[in-house]
Amino acid sequence: DGHTILIATPGQAAMNQFMYRRMPYDTATAFVPLAYIASVPSVLVVSPTLEVSSTTDFLEKMKARAGGANFGSAGMGSTGHLGGTLLSMQTGLKAQHVPYRGSAPMLQDLLASNIQFAIDTVPGLMSFITSGTIKALAITGKSRSPALPDVPNNIEAGIADVEMASWLVLLAPAGTPQQIVERINAETNVALGEPDLREKIFKLGAVPEGGSSRDVALFLRRETERWKRVIETAGIKIE
Predict the structure, then answer these.
(1) Strand extents, DSSP E, the chain
(2) Which domains does the chain have, with CATH numbers?
(3) Which of 208, 211, 225, 239 could link 215 by a cystine bridge, Cβ 3.0 to 4.6 Å?
(4) What stretch of H or E contains 184?
């Protein structure tokens, strides 16, 4: 009826179904896409004591390191886990995942150089990067982040195949009338066109998106297929 709406993230809408053995819903059939609110770029960051100035330097040093690299994330199955796994797969870097209970303890170990790198969202890391506490090497997407304009994108950094971003989409229960779907989509797009809201989203380190409900459906299909390949290739399973 349009009164029940989920703000979904990649885990909920495109990843979890391939990692958890049992899910209470089938993403493809349980929901109907409404709108694409924002994309949230991720960034490759390294220990402040690591003497590298680029992603190329970093990969060369880590490939030469005995035992490879250790990377941290906010937990098993998190976007940081998937991002680090994708970097390892696409670059041939031997990397061991170290899961934490949230981003805070992960960052503490990164600062202490107990792990060598992490991939996490720009909003979560922005203050540490701008203060110089940790080093940002690359945005893991094809566009630079407006919040971190000096950090190269994945193409500029030489890791074009490492595409990792979080995002927020609106979903409704399957069976929601199409006229309600289109109305919510239209009103969301109007809101996303407001300069004040756009500015607030940019300041948070995210990027306002938008588009038709069909656009959202196609986007989710591509993301689901992409992460299915990564998760199954890496053999990631969560009990």
Answers:
(1) 6-8, 31-46, 69-73, 95-99, 117-121, 135-139, 165-173, 207-208
(2) 6-40+166-234 (3.40.190.150), 41-139 (3.40.190.10)
(3) 211
(4) helix 178-192
Nearest partner of 31 among 199, 173, 222, 137, judged by Cα: 173
Note whether 1 and 176 are within 8 A (CB): yes
Which residue bears the tokens 């209470």?
Answer: 24
What pTM was computed for the model? 0.93
Q: Would you tell me how many other CB atoms lie within 10 Å of the CB of residue 211?
A: 16
How far CA 87 is from CA of 95, 138, 158, 227, in Å, comes to 9, 12, 11, 13
Residue 49 has phi, psi (to 5 degrees) of -90, -5
pLDDT per residue as tens digits for the range 169-217: 999 999 999 999 999 999 999 999 999 999 999 999 999 999 999 999 9
Rounded distance between C-alpha atoms, residue 53 and residue 167, angstroms: 29
> Given the DSSP bridges, would you call strands 207-208 and 117-121 parallel, antiparallel or unpaired?
unpaired
In angstroms, rounded to a whole number, what is the distance separating the alpha carbons of residues 239 and 22?
Answer: 9
Enclosing H/E stretch for 201: helix 195-203
The answer to whether the beta carbons of residues 101 and 173 sit under 8 Å apart is no
- DSSP conformation class of 118: E
Q: How much is the pLDDT for 196? A: 98
How far apart CA 130 and CA 43 sit, in angstroms, is 13
